[in-house]
Amino acid sequence: MRATFGVPHLTTHVLDARTGTPAAGVALTLRTAEGEVLATGETDADGRAGLGPDVLPQGELELRFDTGAHHRATGVPSFHPYVVVAFTVSGTDHLHVPLLLSPFAYSTYRGS
């Protein structure tokens, strides 16, 4: 079992595939499937952020990335004004939800 002392239970990393650089300043919202906001934040200069309570609630959660603002700030038209990644929490392990972003596509996976 990996120790998570000092590490939020949910982390993310957003990379802009168009430029090959971290996407800094992307606003984030972590919600339950019912819409209750658990945490908000934004990515740092390295495109990283930690969110959430000390222990994530079990069940379905949604992490929203406000990607449209990032693209507008870089002067690039885009198709997705935001990206919502839905996932299931079943345990107490640290979760990492990265986002690879481009103006007309995105991908994600469960990271480590």
From TrEMBL:
Reported function: Catalyzes the hydrolysis of 5-hydroxyisourate (HIU) to 2-oxo-4-hydroxy-4-carboxy-5-ureidoimidazoline (OHCU).
EC number: 3.5.2.17
Keywords, alphabetical: Hydrolase, Purine metabolism
Limits of the Transthyretin/hydroxyisourate hydrolase domain: 10-111
Catalytic activity of the protein: 5-hydroxyisourate + H2O = 5-hydroxy-2-oxo-4-ureido-2,5-dihydro-1H-imidazole-5-carboxylate + H(+)
UniProt subunit comment: Homotetramer.
Record GO terms (molecular function): hydroxyisourate hydrolase activity
Enzyme class name: hydrolase
Family: Belongs to the transthyretin family. 5-hydroxyisourate hydrolase subfamily.
Name of the protein in question: 5-hydroxyisourate hydrolase
Organism annotation: Curtobacterium citri
